[in-house]
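Box S2. Input/output pair 1.
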Amino acid sequence: MSSQNPVFIPGPTNIPDALRRAIDLPTMDHRSPAFAEILHPALAGIKRILKTREGEVVIFPATGTGAWEAAVTNLLSPGDTVLAARHGMFSHRWIDLCQRQGMNAEIIETEWGLGAPTEAIEAALSADKAHKIRAVLVTHNETATGVRSDVAAVRRALDAASHPALLLVDGVSSIASMDFRMDEWGVDAAITGSQKGFMLPAGLSILGLSQKAIAAMTGAKSPRCFFDFQDMIKANAGGGFPYTPPVGLIAGLAHAISMLEAEGLHNVYARHYRLAEGVRRAVQAWGLTLCAKKPSIYSDTVSAIVTPPGFDGTRIVTHAAQKYGVAFGVGLGEVAGKVFRIGHLGSLTDVMALSGIATAEMTMVDLGLPVRLGSGVASAQEFYRSSQNTVQTKAA
């Protein structure tokens, strides 16, 4: 694998040189006032990215899975019931984590390639007259299938059912790349990590918490120590951490937020739409389809591309890595071998995206698939050259 080529996996994403430099810090005393000067801008910046004024933000040295566990153990107790749709590998893993923590999962089995089924969620909530369901879990962007769920619609379902359950949202592969509105959507716990839209190495679990979530901490009886929200919030208020913090990554996070805001969040989201739409145009030109069943749920950060029946999609990923030194994503879970994935998020431009499209195209031709060399590239080129200004203006 060449380190000079961009990666096209849905995370970790490409790291800009400016962020490499930002995380390259000498050792410092993390109990000194100097650390607070790094920490507080990062926390304030996350609130702006999440679009929350009322919420609190916490950071742990972990990844998205750590953020899942932190949310579950701080807000729920063993024996509590959670409601979740299983429609991809990452929604499945979150359910599995809750079950391992001793919680009951009420699962709505949903076809992979569809989003969270809001009507079924509303029906389950309306039927729960005793309010046994303590939390609804939503995967905003299902990375395995390239599907975006409508979080605002899930909030409307909760409100329509007059249900008091918490709304916990996995935004690991969407936050800082796709529009996310924590306060407006009534999200109680927003979960993400450093290695995707924030363009950093893996190593930070990032959570936004509503005041309702903070109140729920007092009654939650799950054991926690490393992931204790109360310890973290108390220490952060004084400019510190309850244990040794990853100073370099937190400094990088503050710098990443500055970069995103300098670009303008509306332009960040427009860029991701544009990158994704170029890939989608290429897929159509190749005569292939996406795993996502309809345009309204297409992800703007990853496309899962269905390969012809009988063809193992993992061969595309393996061949591209071995011959061209370029990384794509394999299919996971129920779609393993049936799709390959092109990640188009984080530090990526139209020109970089074209190199990934061209590599995927060469790989498929090498492997004998009925793809015409240049077809997908030309389709994406035509879109990129004609859409750059109009997409940004529309997003603004």
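Box S3. Input/output pair 2.
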Amino acid sequence: MGWIDVRDIAASAAALLGEPEVRTASDDYLLTGPESLSYGDTAEAMTAQAGRRIRVRRIEPDEQAAAYRAAGLPAEFAAALATVEDGIRRGREDRVSTAVLDLTGRPPRTFARFVSEHVGEWRAK
């Protein structure tokens, strides 16, 4: 998945809202980070800086849907989210775009940069 920093989403939205003449009603922008990373890739990046092991535990879509239901989501929505998660795990969203660069004039932040800026949230205590 092309993980994207929320600040890049905000900057892209600001560019679109600030210069409405650069878009048309049919314009779509796929906002992504600069690289496609699996859940395992992101866990490795976090592990490398956090001082403790961050793991991804694979669970089946039925188990994921049950967890969403247990958290209070309606059954149909829980099943839909679990299906999306399974698709991500299988690589269906392995896409990146140049939209952030095109809209803001600067490249999107990397996941590694995001981790380095937020490493305190994952450090061993």
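Caption for Box S3: The chain has a mean pLDDT of 90. The chain has six helices and no strands.
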